[in-house]
Amino acid sequence: MSGPLEGLKVLDIATIVAAPFAATLLADYGAEVLKIEMPGQGDGVRAFPPFKDGKPLWWKSVNRNKKFATLDLRKPDGVALFKRMLPHFDVLIENFRPGTLDRWGLSKEVLWQVQPRLVILRATAFGQDGPYRDRPGFARIFEAMGGLTYITGEADGQPMHPGYPIGDAIGGLFGAVGALAALWKRAKNPDAPGEEIDLALTEAVFRLLDVLPIEFDQLGEVRGRIGNGNAYSAPAAVYRTRDDRWVTLAGSTNALFAANCRAIGRPDLSEDPRFSNNARRVDHSAELNAIFAQWCGSHTLDEVLAAFAAEEGTLAPIYAIDQIAADPQSRAREMITRVPDKDFGSVAMANVVPRFTVDRTQLRQSGGDIGQDNHDIYARWLGLSEQEIERLARQGVF
Fold it and tell me: From the candidates 43, 168, 341, 373, which is the catalytic residue?
């Protein structure tokens, strides 16, 4: 183990992406994470594409750095073993519908009786209360009802989801932050009782859209879609280069606007009264974007990048994954690193974010096979005999 969370123990009984991703982030920072799955079927992400040689690649990334055991919490023997595990752990992460663990005899009161300092992170679509508490949810639900989808897309087009379930990743980030916040109190006060964290994944998406509530409350405005434009800065758009590549432009200050104007050979634009400050530039964004689009369209990507680099402008190429992998900054920072993998020797994954200078982190392994650590967990951790392990396995407890 390595990283600032070395010594922290996390029990991940969640499924799919958002809540397990929270556990994976803690594992990235050095926590020891045990993922428990239902015997036989396992987590649903094991059936998600893409596959190589029948092996789920997404699984290997989203559940990296964990140990893997199986346990059926619907069975009395499974509940009994679970209670024996709990004293070993500081955090429990689950995403069952509200009341599910209670029905299995694992209410928070029972959990805290077994492990009084336990931090329980509960991730659901809409939270533990309210009229939607029992509704199921996936990333598209969170993105749609959290307001993200409505503001994404062309002004005259349909609302758009991103091409990746970003709602799950957002929820996982808030889950990890919430767990760390709860743990800080317990680090300061060893006698502090346990905590229950109610993470509504739809609320997590909404929280990132910071300005929408106050904008609606004070101005009565309902923000709509503006494509690749920008509601608070201009010029800002996506432009095609002469060689059919794409770049994006930003920069709201006068100094950055002047640099961007010099890059396209139009320093006069920064002297134009229509463009004298950011608010006026936003009012005239269509004119500015047309000027920058025409210039980019008459130059190759390399020419565009060189011109903006020379003037320290705020333009960037729009990368696909192959370009990220080849970029010199990405390579220097090892944004993509190789992780040991039992099936393929090693596989590429995004590195840990953020970096820690003193308590350095390490990616130890990709996501493993269902129940691969069962014997180690039940024999070494819980002290079950070989006969008990065989009996419980025959009964389908694990």
Answer: 168
